[in-house]
Specification:
The chain is mainly β. It contains 2 helices and 14 strands, in the order αβββββββββββββαβ. The radius of gyration is 19 Å and the shape is globular.
């Protein structure tokens, strides 16, 4: 699975960089303009994309993950159970968004801030080849704690920061990379690290006007436990005027930040993967 993601990522980067150069040589002079719709949603599959809700736009996303598919028809490939993450974001500015979320998986609430530092610009004059976004997230675990663990608020909190760097190569292909830092206030043992570093790759391929295929995967930087798995997700996206609907296959049941990076223990070979969907609806306020 990891080799598949890497092969697709680097092949697309090479092919469409060459195509973009040819298109540039053919085009006449143009004023520099920001590139629109690098991705159609604020998430690729599990991971955040470079997109923000527009100014004064409220975005509501439901991330629904069913149970493991390994039991087949006994529980209808996991449809008898589910984990749901509700994600609410508001565009405070064209370059700034604030959001709140709640996941049934480990009963986690999260608070996020997303700001766009740089926009991809095309044309003549002052341009930029990439979009750069800074993403902050604080997750609060509200599960009932074992009496052995000192139950204070700080022990329930995890932090995540990402630098999201994306590029739209043309109308068909967009790719991004996201260096990530996660800090856990409470870890299971003294041997576990409080600070975890990783990076994520993600991309989108446009198939038709309203249908796209997307994928993302995370890679750890540094050591991890033996049962660690790279979190990945595949999505088939249906785009309409008012919302984006994504059919999902992933090895992470938790939809919030941190869960799909550090707590993805499923494997395609054993059937420990999850069907699901994301649905996004936007409202103008």
């Amino acid at each position: 699975m990891i080799r598949f993601f890497l092969l697709i990522f680097f092949s697309l980067t090479t092919i469409f960089s060459q195509e973009e150069l040819l298109n540039f040589l053919d085009d006449g002079p143009k004023e520099p303009l920001p590139v629109q719709a690098t991705f159609k949603a604020t998430r690729i599959v599990n991971s955040q994309s470079v997109e923000l809700p527009r100014f004064k736009i409220l975005e509501f996303m439901v991330q629904h993950r069913f149970g493991k598919v390994e039991n087949g028809f006994y529980d209808l490939f996991g449809l008898d159970e589910a984990a749901v993450h509700y994600d609410l974001k508001y565009g405070l500015h064209e370059r700034l968004a604030f959001g709140l979320g709640r996941s049934s998986w480990k009963k986690t609430y999260d608070i996020m801030v997303k700001t766009k530092l740089m926009r991809q610009m095309e044309g003549l004059g002052k341009t930029s080849p990439i979009t750069v976004v800074l993403f902050f997230n604080m997750g609060i675990n509200t599960l009932r704690k074992d009496a052995i663990v000192k139950d204070n608020f700080a022990n329930r909190v995890n932090y995540l920061q990402q630098l999201i760097i994306g590029r739209k190569f043309n109308e068909m292909v967009s790719l991004q990379v996201s260096p990530t830092w996660i800090h856990k206030n409470l870890v299971p043992t003294n041997q576990d690290e409080h600070n975890l570093f990783s990076t994520s790759l993600g991309g989108r391929i446009k198939v038709t006007k309203h249908y796209t295929v997307s994928a993302d995967i995370s890679f750890p930087l540094g050591s991890r436990p033996e049962n660690y798995k790279n979190g990945w997700g595949l999505g088939f996206n249906i785009e309409t005027g008012g919302h984006v609907f994504q059919l999902i296959l992933t090895n992470a049941q938790g939809g919030y930040e941190g869960a799909y990076i550090e707590d993805a223990y499923g494997s395609l070979s054993t059937g420990e993967v999850y069907l699901g969907f994301n649905i996004t609806r936007v409202f103008s306020l």
